Known about the structure:
Shape: globular
Oligomer: single chain
Mean pLDDT: 93
Low-confidence stretches: none
Strand content: 25-35%
Helix content: under 10%
Strand order of the largest sheet: 3-9-8
Structural class: mainly beta
Bound molecules: zinc ion
Number of strands: 12
Number of domains: 1
CATH topology: Beta-clip-like
Largest sheet: 3 strands, antiparallel
CATH class: Mainly Beta
CATH superfamily: SET domain
Distance between the termini: 41 Å
Amino acid sequence: MYPPHYGKNPLFPNKMDFRVVLRNHVSGMGVMTFKAFAKGDLICVLAGDIITDIRQHSLQIEPGVHLYDIHFSGYFLHSCDPNVYLDMKNLRVYATRDINVNDYLMMDYAQTEDVLFKQFPCSCGAENCRGWITGRKELPYADAVLPSGFRLPDNQFEECQSI
Ligand SMILES: [Zn+2]
């Protein structure tokens, strides 16, 4: 799925196994898998451009360093009960539970992002849905309409409390 200038790696996602599809007009684009995975499986290795700003489809590698992958991982949908975990240091994606054919790959944006390009209301349907999605180091927008039971991501850092 990656253009040739990212090099060749058999662990890169390929068109036989995944497709970026329009899920619906609320969620937008998502990545569907045509291959099943078991919990703990390495799903693939990521590539992209390394950038210093936050964009709609970027993923944070470390503060000030982001992966801009508009071919694959930039389209992962959010779920508060994700089925993938991203190791951004090694650009690897793992299954957090069994994943079936035709499932969407879903990550928790607060797993990688300190600050989101844009916060948004979530209707992922998970039992532990936070309802409003922020980065792990930011508080909700002042004008956010927070659902009852809203809570910040689990790994909310302490420095947020001083904002
Ligand atoms: Zn949710």
